[in-house]
Write a structure and sequence with these properties.
binds (2R,3S,4R,5S)-2-(hydroxymethyl)piperidine-3,4,5-triol; alpha+beta; 8-stranded parallel beta barrel
């Protein structure tokens, strides 16, 4: 039984395949957290409030921490009642246990505030989805000042280490690790969306390695301002709370209204980081991504942004489309510049009509042409934005987020529409619906290229204005939900100046994300490595482009870097030589041969790009019959070498496996060994760095893609 309640001791035992999560009512009927960690053989083995390890002097163990009762753990809930009282005193009401879902209900009876705690167990991936609902069952409004999704507690050991993903535009998802010391570490976004600076992912490990040791992790499914606080006192357990950011936030909960928080997914691996990531990846494919397309293979895409930027027109797009089709592209995407008076980033955003000079007969001739070449057609939009130089802004200056008597700060010459407003939401729904209804479009890249600054909403009463942060996101989700239902064949990509809106909230509506605007194939490796800790390879769009200069990287290196996720091409195909075309064609074919393993398989990081002289990633099918190794040299780690010993993961010990290189008809065998041998002694990848060093004949950047196959 994954969820067990012991009536006598009043303890709930939540167990997944390898994880236990335990809490219960103490002798004062207060809900206390007792344990999160490896599953133990018997229920009696778990600690309870009678054990020293979970009892302390400062009540540092509230399963749901409110601002009340001698509690200084970071809060999950802080409200103000009509009479100014700000302590929330919750008492246990009842619980419901159904289908791996536990709901525990608590109530502040005097003020009529009910709180329901939700625990949805995902047994096979050792994950629990946590969220809460607060309901105002009184006759007076209740002001919410802070509402988080959950709190968790972890052992306070010297070795505890916090890992998280940070970055900025063009350098997202950099992995950081640090010792957890006393005080608070805050990871957050205040920019209005998920943000590129920090991603709502954390993990805490205790000297774990890739394939051994304890790793606890959490991801928040929220595309607005968020906050994760890791708090430590000298003796108490480490406390973590996560949810919507309380900064600049209040919400007036009217009588009989409810507020449901975003979900926090918490999980545990006793087999190191690799297993933690794999569980997360497959959980995303099976439970988070829109299920109609979650297990469909992502098509090889061409995006014209880096080739033509804003100068798109029917002719040059057709020309690129024809070349893209030639190398095996399956989806052709026109990026920014096709609408309004959009000749640069200075004008046009908001005017979503097809630019008549660039496309005199509308989009149809281009779409028909793309389809005649056997490709799907996709298009870029940025619906939440408006340039002051646009008809939309001239007609509706009040639609943008602003404070009266304050400047309207622009970023990339644009302002943000106040999506919290219902009329703005309806406008976006309408024009997007029209665009998709009138044109045979299969793919939408939805971009958002700035942060929220002056977060005013002058049209509503002051005590409701701070709701803008959450209402904006709810309405965004509503629009995506509406469009997906109405146009089920369309695939959606989330982009925000690259990877600024990547989280498990938007991924309930988006099939994939644009990972980063930085498409330099070497820089990307660190970004992609960080990404892999939290998100599945299939979600990660990666393009082959001309970044870094055409001669710096061999085309193969560019392809191999981009093949670690869902492959796209963004290079200017007009500059391709016949040789480039031949290489690209082969690489696209190779990708099509391996993509089901990359997109649906289990990913293993064989090295870390910043620590090693190479970056290698392995993928393996669930049945362990087939795999792929992507190997790229890191020339910044200088050292004379011409060979690297790679040890594989996950193979079956007593079966014979072979390693091959090349597309189907040209496959060459490299070596055959048993699974155990590949794992224990490894095999040599020839990497002719010496050639480069002594005579400069071979390229500085070098890469290989190898196929792994079980031999019957
Ligand atoms: C930012 C995106 O990240 C780019 O890929 C591109 O779509 C531009 N916006 C277009 O303005």
């Amino acid at each position: 039984m994954p969820i067990t309640f012991n009536e006598k001791s009043k303890i709930w035992y939540l167990e997944t395949q390898n994880m236990g999560y335990i809490f219960g009512l103490d002798n004062l009927e207060k809900l206390k957290n007792y344990y999160w960690g490896p599953k133990l053989p018997r229920l009696e083995d778990y600690p309870t409030d009678k054990d020293y390890i979970v009892t302390d002097r400062y009540s540092w163990n509230h399963e749901f921490s409110t601002r009340s009762e001698n509690n200084h753990v970071e809060h999950c809930l802080k409200v103000e009642y009509f009479d100014g009282v700000r302590d929330v005193i919750l008492n246990y009401e009842n619980y419901i246990n159904e289908d791996n879902l536990l709901i525990v209900s608590l109530i502040d009876a005097y003020y009529g505030l009910r709180v329901r705690l939700f625990y949805q167990l995902i047994e096979e991936y050792d994950i629990i989805e946590r969220w809460i609902e607060v309901e105002n069952s009184s006759l007076k409004p209740i002001k919410i000042e802070d509402i988080k999704s959950a709190s968790v507690y972890l052992e306070n050991e010297k070795t505890a280490r916090l890992n998280y993903l940070c970055g900025m535009w063009a350098n997202e998802f950099c992995l950081r690790s640090e010792e957890i010391n006393e005080g608070k570490k805050v990871l957050e976004s205040r920019v209005g969306n998920t943000g590129p600076y920090l991603n709502p992912y954390f993990s805490i490990d205790y000297e774990a390695k890739e394939d051994k040791g304890r790793v606890y992790f959490g991801l928040l499914g929220w595309s607005g301002n968020w906050k994760i606080v890791v708090q430590k006192r000298i003796y108490e357990r480490i406390a973590i709370v996560a949810g919507i950011n309380d900064w600049d936030f209040t919400y007036l909960l009217e009588p009989s209204q409810s507020f449901i928080t975003p979900k926090l997914m918490i999980g545990f691996s006793n087999e190191g980081f690799s297993k933690a990531s794999q569980n997360l990846h497959h959980y995303q494919l099976d439970y988070i991504l829109p299920q109609d397309k979650a297990h469909k293979l992502r098509k090889v895409l061409y995006n014209s942004w880096e080739a033509t930027t804003f100068n798109v027109n029917e002719e040059n797009q057709k020309q690129l489309a024809q070349k893209a089709a030639q190398i095996g592209v399956e989806l052709f995407v026109v990026d920014d510049g096709w609408f309004g008076k959009r000749n640069s980033d200075k004008a046009g955003l908001g005017d979503w009509y097809v630019n008549p000079e660039k496309f005199p007969k509308g989009l149809k001739p281009l779409i028909d042409y793309v389809k005649s070449l056997g490709m799907d057609f996709g298009i870029w939009v940025e619906p939440e934005m408006v340039n002051p130089d646009s008809d939309l802004y001239r007609n509706h200056p009040d639609w943008v987020i602003n404070f009266p008597n304050r400047p309207r700060t622009e970023q990339r010459n644009q302002l943000i529409l106040n999506l919290a407003r219902e009329d703005v939401k309806e406008y976006i729904k309408e024009f997007m619906d029209k665009l998709l209804t009138e044109n045979n479009i299969d793919f939408i890249k939805w971009d958002m290229n700035r942060h929220i600054f002056e977060s005013g909403w002058p049209e509503v009463e002051p005590n409701k204005q701070r709701e803008i942060w959450v209402r904006y996101v709810w309405n965004l989700y509503d629009i995506w939900n509406y469009l997906r239902k109405k146009h089920p064949h369309v695939t959606f990509e989330s982009c925000s100046s690259g990877g600024g809106r990547v989280d498990l909230g938007i991924l309930r509506y988006a099939d994939q994300v644009w990972t980063s605007d930085n498409t330099d194939p070497f820089d990307r490796l660190e970004i992609q490595e960080g990404f892999s800790y939290a998100y599945a390879p299939k979600i990660m769009m990666a393009w082959v482009t001309d970044w870094g200069g055409k001669d710096k990287y061999p085309l193969e290196y560019r392809f191999h870097s981009a093949m670690m996720g869902s492959l796209g091409i963004g290079a200017d195909l007009n500059k391709f030589t016949p040789d480039d075309f031949a290489i690209a064609k082969k690489q696209v074919q190779l990708y099509k041969e391996i993509r089901d393993i990359v997109q649906e398989g289990f990913q293993y990081r064989l090295s870390s790009v910043n620590k090693e002289r190479y970056f290698a990633v392995q993928y393996l099918t669930k049945d362990k019959n087939e795999g792929v190794i992507i190997y790229l040299r890191n020339p910044r780690k200088f050292g004379l070498f011409d060979r690297v010993n790679i040890k594989l993961k996950g193979l079956e010990d007593n079966y014979l496996y072979g390693i091959y290189e090349g597309i189907k008809d040209e496959e060459k065998e490299i070596i055959q060994l048993t699974g155990k041998a590949f794992k224990e002694r490894g095999f040599i990848i020839e990497d002719s760095y010496l050639d480069f060093f002594y005579n400069g004949k071979s390229p500085l950047f070098y890469s290989r893609i190898l196929k792994v196959k079980k031999i019957d």
